[in-house]
């Protein structure tokens, strides 16, 4: 369970400050997939980076399973599995070694790591390349390695930044099935995307974010009702273009 409340983050740029995240707040529940949907530059990655403790917010609060990220980031990290926007697998290591390395960082023993890799290699269909060095891997193979690495410690909460970026249809389908399995296991799953159909196909609830602000929260049907539009792409365009004061709430 993840709670994000009134997050703010600014960056200094030569042309002046960039207020990337302006009061973002939402709840992501266990046993649900929550989609963070927004156009390029909306503030999705910045929000997720604060959630997975890579940067601190200027203002606001984040709780993971009731633990305040600012007070106990180490405990929070143990409960999070993160696929960051930069996948960064070690190219001199095989996929298996990449995953093992993270398992050891989490303090897992060899037998546990072996068992976890065995399970994930089957679910993510990684057998063909598991023992190859990742140098030269396709994007899909790199993403799968990074996902398996992120989940080696069996976290309750899973955060994926644009997980289907650059993946083909078959791999995307496989990944969707995998995320549904995580949900069925009662985990809290958040993923970001700028593609409405992608989010609609998978998410129980969608948080629409644009210009650093939450524009609407709801199920795909609730968002359709709120806007009076049937086509989800039109819904997204309408919500993303809304003025801040027009923010819509469809909290379940
Ligand atoms: N380290 C940084 N320094 C300066 N500006 C930044 C930094 N990180 C993000 N920004 C700016 O903050 C805004 C939000 O960026 P962010 O990466 O969070 O968007 P996003 O929704 O993930 O976009 P995309 O879908 O294009 O990845 C953008 O204007 C971006 O240029």
TrEMBL record:
ABC transporter domain span: 2-236
Pfam families assigned to the protein according to its UniProt record, in alphabetical order: ABC_tran
Domain of life (superkingdom): Bacteria
Keyword terms: ATP-binding, Nodulation, Nucleotide-binding, Transport
Annotated family: Belongs to the ABC transporter superfamily.
Lineage of producing organism: Bacteria, Pseudomonadati, Pseudomonadota, Gammaproteobacteria, Lysobacterales
Protein name, per record: ATP-binding cassette domain-containing protein
GO MF terms, alphabetically ordered: ATP binding; ATP hydrolysis activity
Signal peptide: none
Keyword DNA damage in record: no
Presence of keyword RNA-binding: no
PANTHER family: ABC TRANSPORTER ATP-BINDING PROTEIN (PTHR42711), ABC TRANSPORTER ATP-BINDING PROTEIN NATA (PTHR42711:SF5)
């Amino acid at each position: 369970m993840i709670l994000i409340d009134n997050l703010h983050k600014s960056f200094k740029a030569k042309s002046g400050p960039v207020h990337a995240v302006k009061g973002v707040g939402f709840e992501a529940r266990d046993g649900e997939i929550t989609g963070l949907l927004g156009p390029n530059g909306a503030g999705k990655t910045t929000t997720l980076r604060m959630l997975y403790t890579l940067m601190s917010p200027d203002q606001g609060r984040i709780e993971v399973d009731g633990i305040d990220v600012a007070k106990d980031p180490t405990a929070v990290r143990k409960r999070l599995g993160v696929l960051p926007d930069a996948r960064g697998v070690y190219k001199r290591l095989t996929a298996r070694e990449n995953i093992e390395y993270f398992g050891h960082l989490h303090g897992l023993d060899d037998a546990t790591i072996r068992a976890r890799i065995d399970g994930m290699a089957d679910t993510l269909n990684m057998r063909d390349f598991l023992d190859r060095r990742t140098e030269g891997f396709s994007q899909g193979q790199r993403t799968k390695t990074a996902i398996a690495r992120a989940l080696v410690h069996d976290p309750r909460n899973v955060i994926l930044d644009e997980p289907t970026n650059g993946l083909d249809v078959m791999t995307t389908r496989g990944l969707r099935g995998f995320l549904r399995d995580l949900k069925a296991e009662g985990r809290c799953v958040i993923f970001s995307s700028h593609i409405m159909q992608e989010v609609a196909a998978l998410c129980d609830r969608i948080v629409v974010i644009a210009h650093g602000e939450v524009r609407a929260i709801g199920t795909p049907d609730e968002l359709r009702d709120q806007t009076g539009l049937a086509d989800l792409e039109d819904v997204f365009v309408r919500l993303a273009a809304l003025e801040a004061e027009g923010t819509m709430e469809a909290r379940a």
